[in-house]
Amino acid sequence: MSPHNDAPSRMGSFNGGHISIPLPAGILSTHTPVSSESSSPLDGSLDTPSFTPELCTPRRPLRPGVYVPTVCFFDPETEDVDTAAITRHAVRLAEAGVTGLATQGSNGEAVHLTHSERRLVTATTRKALDENGFPNMPLIVGCGSQSTRETIQHCREAWETGGDYALVLPPSYYATLFAPASETVLRYFREVADASPIPIMIYNFPGASGGLDLSSDDVTELARHPNIVGVKFTCGNTGKLNRVAGATRCAPKRPHDDEEVPEFLVLAGSADFTIQAGVAGGHGILAGLGNIAPRACVRTLELFRAGSLEEARDMQAVLSHGDWAAIQGGVVGVKAGMEAWLGYGGYARSPLPRPTREQAERWKEGFRRLVMLEKGLRMGA
């Protein structure tokens, strides 16, 4: 978990269930027609319509709850994207009662995927939900990149392939050249939000952005933009989360009629502070641990909301123990745990190493308590 710091960083066609490029047109969502041919994100001009409230009003609103950033699955020999496993996993999570899914996050190995592969993963996930009784489940898509231009391209490709929201990390590679007082980062988010055909969620994860850590003032300021609708705090800072939740609770109404939908969704980025985030005014979690134990994550939040605090604390302790294994092992450890306990998961793409037998056993044991809880909840469902 990153240190708690509320100041801005110092600026110094399918084949056997596996991908075949180009992307087959038949799997695409009907948001808008797109070519099935793979193209460079810089080909042509980015001249599609900019943000308007009418264009960006989502039909799948973001409700409080548990969101899971899905892992991406690969053939163990070829490392091709395994669309059959993506489909099975998405349906398993939806059936467990989660509120929404996310693709192209840290657990989804977005940095290991081409543009065409990213489009395929999102389209496959959306298709799996739609065809298995979950057409109303929102789908968040990781869209951050180092340039404003490519980030906008990712947002548009996410929209074209069925994504409802874009999760965007701040750029950080050239952070030492950024303008002071977060000016460059704030301008980046506003320009992306102006151009994106889907609403934006801010992704504050210093560990994945060179230590760049948005302050509560930065996030609250960005929340004023009508096309920026939420934030994921993987910084672990509950004080920051509390300030943002409080400041945005009475934000101007966005274009929806559902009283359960917050004006600005504030999510914890790890399962190990699920109820802590709830106490601080957060609306739920977007946490990779849900890949292994979605029911445990959902039940913990349910108990907290119902006022069953002692039960919620007991279950939170199990989540936190399991999340420590996930934090230590990252996507390599999560996949090893899934393989050991669920019978699928496979390996991360190279150059990430495959775990040794001893490492795989260690990850399995790290998730044991959590998996026993998950199995108990599944049997009692």
UniProtKB/TrEMBL annotation:
Low complexity compositional bias, start-end: 29-47
A Pfam short name: DHDPS
Organism: Cephalotrichum gorgonifer
Listed name of the protein: Related to dihydrodipicolinate synthetase
InterPro entries from the UniProt entry: Aldolase_TIM (IPR013785), DapA-like (IPR002220)
Domain of life per record: Eukaryota
Region (Disordered): 28-57
GO molecular function term, any single one: 4-hydroxy-tetrahydrodipicolinate synthase activity
Alphabetical list of PANTHER family matching this protein: 4-HYDROXY-2-OXOGLUTARATE ALDOLASE, MITOCHONDRIAL-RELATED, DIHYDRODIPICOLINATE SYNTHASE
